Amino acid sequence: MTGRGADALSGFDFKRILGIADALPMPLALIGRDERYQFCNQALAEFLERPRSAILGQPIGEVIGKVAYEIRKPLIAAALAGERQWFAAEYAHPSRGTVAIQTQYLPQVDPDGTISGIVILVTDVTEQRVAERAIRESEARFRRIANNAPVIMWVTRLDRHREFVNDEYLSFTGVARDQVNAHEWRDFIHPDDFEQVVVDSMAGEASRRPFTLEARYKRADGIYRWLRSVSSPRFGPDGELIGFIGAAFDITLAKEAELELRRQVDERTAEVRDSEARLRAIFDSVREVVVLLDTDGTVLQLNRTQASWRHKRADDAIGKKLWEAPTLAAYPEHTESVRGAVEVAATGVPVTREIILEKAGAQTAYLDVSFGPVAGRDGSVKYILFEARDVTELKAAQEQLRQSQKMEALGQLTGGIAHDFNNLLTVVVGGLDLIVRRAEDPKLGRYARNALEAAERGARLTAQLLAFSRVQRLEVRPTLVEPLIANMRPLLRNVLGPGIEKRIELDETAIPVLADPTQLELAVLNLAINARDAMPGGGLLSITTRPVSVGNDAELDPGDYLELSIGDTGTGMPAEVVARAFDPFFTTKEVGKGTGLGLSMVYGVARQSGGTARIESRPGEGTTVRLYFPRAQAAVGPENAESDAADESSVSVGQAATVLVVDDDPDVRGFVVSSLEEHGYQVAEAADGEAALAEFRRQTPDLVVLDYLMPGMSGAQVAREMRGLRPEQPILFVSGYSETDAIRAAAPGAALLSKPFRSEALAAAVRKVLSGA
Description:
This protein is α+β, with helices and mostly antiparallel strands. 39% of the residues lie in helices and 25% in strands. The longest helix is centred in the middle third of the chain and has 47 residues, at 392-438. It starts with a helix and ends with a helix.
């Protein structure tokens, strides 16, 4: 070392300092103001692969190369001016190829403040760069894999901030990537599953272990899908919980993926299958019971999936024949079937069967089971994989669907019969009404009035049939409950039979309530039938009414109500059944004995009327259902349009009006035409839609009386055509149904007269429409 740098080191043990510098693993050098190397340690000489003597005294440009020097020249100049410099670049190493280095240029300041040179420190960061690049590539691969995966994936912090979501997440939710932390995932949960998902999620997170959730979630297109999500905790370097990573997938697709995974595992591990077959994955998280058998049926290994029909200590089965294990040993009737299936599977033929587990005191379970042969390397069967899937709920759902379809078909049939019967009753009621009004013989008039009353009772029966078929619309109006129940006594007597005592105690105060009379009758009938089923050995059915006042109730507005109670002395229900009794499709009856819709309909009738329904029950102490209906402010009105005919002067219309009558039933059409002509109207008629439109174009009538349901063109189609030609055309629909919503859609503002009806009711309805009232 020479020059001022050497002077700076005078007074020190130069050899000791040189030894320390050489011991450093970091390349180190000192250059003077002439940019020549005054010192370098052994690490720098080895890095440059030159002897130290070939470096000392040489210009830095000669040692590192002119290109590298030109890049670093401004940094060297700045360091000689007193500014510490830092530089990172890739360097063409003589033997290692391209390496990544970080270089520091440290100005050396003499005691007099002048810069005597620069200390150069070199750090080889090639391995760090490689590691960083590997990490970036790994992250990129992860993102590519995650974004191409057909499952929803996410990574969250403890504060639920989402650090990553994949493309499937965005596709399912319809959320933009920059909005992933602006939406609430819980908003996508089906309302019926929300509470359970929240409870299970909180419990799973608190456990600090992986946990699984199953629920319905709303996809971006509005359709709910069942997803199974698995969330696993993420821990920091010190073992602290920092968040969760999760995946959610459609259950059906997950099953297919599981089978594909098993196939791939079998293919990729064929060389070790014989030695590792017993260790083949048995997932405790799957819902199926999975058992690995020897070819003679001995249980070798199994999972621990819990099931109501399975023995509590599953491991007790290991070492026993499958049919002798605790679970199946309780059902000896299946021994030969299971033994035979094992023998067939041992020959290499898969076997699938349905097993029904039935015994006293236990719920019947339906299982889909399979016996799958597992081949060894030589192709022979080494093991048998037994899988059992509980399909009890699926069976019940299928049966409920069949029952619902039967009810729907029965409802359609009933509605069709009621519609045709209403057409017949229209002619009967109309004819009898004309006889009553024209009969001069008092006895004949009395006979006709009696027949007319019977025909109108038949009309009320068809209204009940239409309500049963779900065709009748809900018509909430002021209704007296007591006479309605009293009129049901004969029907209840026939439904309940002689073995059940009936006690009906009705409040004598005539309190009108808001309810649909027909739907209320059906609700009472439904509850009476349920009570009968709960008392197979006989008992007491009680029906009572009483006025109540409600002040502070979560379901009811403050005010006056009528409480209608239907109670029995039957078997009663436990609390968990009472809690779900109003749920649609929930039933405690055997498969095929009920749809689970009766009580939900009763609850719906009460709620739609502005009230509610509640159940009180205990096992062995009977059941009482209390229906609450709000008190009506208005008085009970007439049930049909005959009252409108009492005062014709209230809606007077000129008798010269023209009316077009359209009905495919000739008898009904004839009655309507005769009645209108008798009241002085000019009447034209048509038997179908085409004829009606032709007549309408020929001479536009003041009013069209139009049957709603007709073959060919329906009344709705005819009304739309007429309104297209004359938007303000007055139309009066007549129908055996009460399709109010459909009529409003077909012809807004059109009136409706339900069949059957009397002549005066028809005339009153016509006058009302023509007057614009």
